[in-house]
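Here comes an entry:

___
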Amino acid sequence: MVTLMQHNNNLSTGHGSASDPSAAAGALSRAGHSAAAVVLGFILVLGFFCNFLVLLVFSRFPGLRTPVSLLLINISASDMFVCMFGTPLSFAASVRGRWLTGSYGCRWYGFSNALFGVVSLVSLSLLSYERYSVLLCSIQSDSSQYRRARLAVAASWLYSLVWTLPPLLGWSSYGPEGPGTTCSVQWHQRSAASRSYVGCLFVFCLLLPLLLMLFCYGRILLAVREVNRVNRSSAERKEGRILLMVVSMVTGYLLCWMPYGIVAMLSSFGRPGVVPPAASLVPSLLAKTSTVLNPVIYVLLNNQFSRCFLYMIRCSSEAPPTSGHLTPPSDTGVWPHPPDLPTEEQNTAPAMFTSRDQQPQRTDPVLMVDFQT
């Protein structure tokens, strides 16, 4: 009788054991599993397509590969890995209404999604810092900017490994979450070690990247406003578009990740059962939508990237040229550069904001709201 009551309590709170990842599957109705499967299906298809498109365009146009764009490529790559190695497992589990790959598959899912997710979060914050340093700090050589960008990419993966390997080594653990069709860090465990890990993960992998983004983008907005006071030409339009871009970036970050972090903290430090399994599934789905929102907000809305994408589509839709009308190949070997596309040697010179009474040394694309340099 006691065993039966304990099992029913696990189902009602979504706290199935790590050895049985499907234990909490009964906490969600068949209609709920179907709805989750539909949402995950859309996220899987759109996330894979958008990130594949981003990586394809960057591969076709080397002139787009600025130091900042290396971080954008890193974000798209990590989101692509989520779509390849994580989302299909949770989609299949939602279709069947239970976890399908056992405890080892559950731990792999939890680790891989945490690893790629933290890489994406850290890269977003490093992206804001890179933009801030290029615009507001001293001019650096092209080689030093590229070297720093490559170090930032490597640091994002190393930092993520530092925070996602511990559950595999005994500091907390990976297991089922919510209704049992997804796996993550065991937020519900109430040991001192588990709570300390959840608290550190929230602070160092969610809160600090957010604060860095707010600081860097806030300084960029202030700098743009000061320049616009000197040069009133189309100032309001430029400042408004940059503000819209910044608000979109920060809002996307908060919408995708903050609910998940709050639910994790409530599950760890709140009273037992405060977060029902069905409710805990919603923040998990929101976190996965970052694989769709990131390429849209950070890349596809970029003017320069959009021109390259349209140019590529236009070229691919045209009939192949005859032997008498062949154009000389570009340096990519595949697509010629569209008009005015900067090369790798031309696109890294930053603008400097030295004082309120000085114009920037050049018209930087960020002031034209490309926000890509």
